[in-house]
Every structure is written in structure tokens, then in C-alpha cells.
Design a protein that fits this description.
The complex is a heterotrimer of chains A (about 80), B (about 80) and C (about 140). With about 80 residues, chain A is an all-alpha fold. Chain A has helices spanning about 5-25, 30-50, 55-65, 70-84. Classes of the chains: A mainly alpha (about 80), B mainly alpha (about 80), C mainly alpha (about 140).
């Protein structure tokens, strides 16, 4: 029968939670890609219709507010995992 | 035949749950990319027809709020995995 | 939604509505006497507001660039924001005087305001349309 000493148990759980935290932070990549896409489209849109500049900036700002929060979710989980 | 003591099994399950919580949050990539794509398309639509900007912005925000739910699912699963061990 | 053509006025409007909406949890934490929750909420609201203002400045700057340059500019700025969020949440977790979950909720507050505003507007529009059709 295999048995672990308490230090080994502690080490396995700490390792797993640290690896999990590192993987969770990968999700922060998504909003960056999406926001960059929107910004690239906005520049061409402003070139085409300069009089709609205010409405374009407003649309992008509201879009960024909503899409930025997925990254914070992953950060919350990562910090829970590191300190538990 | 290899046999594990109950403490070993408990340790393995805890470690797997914590790892799984981390992997669950990878799902956060999807909504981020999708919401950014929707914002880009909405910007193009506003440039093509500035008269309809109110409708376009409302539709974009509602679509993004719905797309957000996938990220919230993964968040809920990760929290459940962390706090049930 | 009001002030769609003027981003600066829209920003002020959203911040005003956020202040009104944030009164509820702040009053609740004051009445129940949980100072850690109150501090966390105020900390999160402060950082969220500052990042909201930073985003408008970044968008204004990115519109003068070419398409590829704007894409990479906004992406890099997002990663700087992400590092700021990481620092804020780490501080909130390390410091026992600040509640961690309250800080996270404070960071999300502007988003709640925007979604609530859009949904209330949508319901009001649908109601007015119904009223018009009944009048005819």
C-alpha cells in the first residue's frame, strides 16, 4: 500500500494549484485579441466616414467595457488558487 | 497490485480538482474574442449607416451581454471545483 | 441612450449613473458595519473609474494610426490594464483590511451600469410602442 508523508501531500496540492493558476491566466489573452480587432476596424471606419467619429468612439468604448471583464474572472480564479 | 491509502486518494482528488479549476478558466478566451469581434462589426455598421447608431449600439451591447454568459459558466464551475474540496 | 454622438458627455453620464447605483451596496456595508467590504468596494470603484477614463484616451490616440498599428497598440494597452488588475487584486487579497470579493465587484460596477441602462431603455421603448399601438 502506497502512503504519502504530510509534506508530500502538501507539495502535490500546492503544485497542482499553482499549475492551475498559470493555466487560468491564459484566458486573459482573449479580450486583448478581440479589442485589437475592434480597434483595427474602427480606424478604417473613421477614414471612410469622418463625420461619424463620435458615434464610432462611443461604440468602441461601450464594447471595451463589456469585453474586458472576462479577463478579471480568470484573475479572480487564479488568485484564489494561489492563496488557497 | 498497487494499492493507495485513503489519504493518497484524497490528495490526488484535491490536486485534480484544483488543476481542473485552472483549465476551466481557459474558456474565458472565447467570449473575449467574440465580444471584440462584435464591437468591430458594430463600428463598421455605424460607419456605413450613421443614422441607425442607436439601434446598432443597443444590439451590440445586448449581444455582448448574452455572449458573456459562457465566461460566467466557466467561472461558476471553477468556483465550485475550488470550494468543494 | 442619451449623448451617443459625444463620448465625453456619455462618459460623464455613465459615471453619474454608477455613483447613483453604487449608493446601495455602500449604504448596506455602512449600516451592517463591515469596514473591509466598504473599503474593498471603494477601492474597486476607484480603479474601475480610472481605467474607464484611460480607455477613452487610448481609443482617441489609436484612431490616428493605421489599421495594423492600432490593433497592436490597443492589444498592448489591454495587457497593461491586465497587469494593473492583477496588482489590485493581489493587494486586496494580501491585505486583511480589504475584502477581496468586494474589490472584484467594484471593478465590475461600470459594466453593470451599462447593461442595466440598455435593458431599462429597451423595456421603455417597447412599452411606448405598445402604448402608441393601443392609442391607434
Amino acid at each position: 500500500m502506497i502512503q504519502f508523508t504530510p509534506e508530500v501531500v502538501e507539495a502535490i496540492i500546492t503544485t497542482a494549484s499553482l499549475i492551475g493558476a498559470g493555466v487560468a491566466v491564459i484566458a486573459g489573452m482573449g479580450p486583448g485579441i478581440g479589442m485589437g480587432l475592434a480597434a483595427g476596424k474602427a480606424t478604417t471606419a473613421v477614414r471612410r466616414q469622418p463625420e461619424a467619429r463620435g458615434a464610432i468612439i462611443t461604440t468602441m468604448l461601450l464594447g471595451q467595457i463589456i469585453s474586458g471583464s472576462t479577463g478579471i474572472y480568470s484573475l479572480v480564479i487564479a488568485i484564489f488558487l494561489i492563496f488557497s | 497490485m498497487v494499492q493507495f491509502s485513503p489519504e493518497v486518494i484524497d490528495t490526488i482528488i484535491k490536486a485534480a480538482a484544483l488543476l481542473g479549476a485552472g483549465f476551466a478558466m481557459i474558456a474565458g478566451i472565447g467570449p473575449g474574442v467574440g465580444q471584440g469581434y462584435a464591437a468591430g462589426k458594430a463600428v463598421e455598421a455605424v460607419a456605413r449607416d450613421p443614422e441607425a447608431r442607436g439601434n446598432v449600439i443597443t444590439t451590440m451591447l445586448l449581444g455582448q451581454a448574452v455572449a458573456e454568459s459562457t465566461g460566467i459558466y466557466s467561472l461558476v464551475i471553477a468556483i465550485v471545483l475550488i470550494f468543494t474540496i | 441612450m442619451k449623448h451617443i454622438d459625444d463620448p465625453v458627455r456619455l462618459q460623464k453620464e455613465i459615471l453619474k449613473k454608477t455613483c447613483y447605483l453604487a449608493v446601495i451596496p455602500v449604504l448596506y456595508s455602512l449600516v451592517s458595519g463591515e469596514w473591509a467590504t466598504l473599503l474593498g468596494l471603494l477601492f474597486g470603484l476607484l480603479i474601475g473609474t480610472l481605467i474607464f477614463r484611460l480607455r477613452l484616451i487610448n481609443i482617441e490616440r489609436s484612431l490616428q494610426m493605421s489599421e495594423g498599428k492600432a490593433t497592436s497598440f490597443i492589444r498592448n494597452r489591454y495587457f497593461i490594464e491586465y497587469a494593473i488588475y492583477l496588482a489590485v487584486l493581489l493587494v486586496a487579497r494580501k491585505n486583511p483590511a480589504v475584502n477581496f470579493l468586494a474589490t472584484a465587484i467594484g471593478l465590475f460596477f461600470i459594466k453593470f451600469t451599462v447593461i442595466g441602462w440598455v435593458i431599462i431603455d429597451l423595456i421603455r421603448d417597447a412599452f411606448n410602442q405598445k402604448l402608441e399601438s393601443f392609442k391607434r
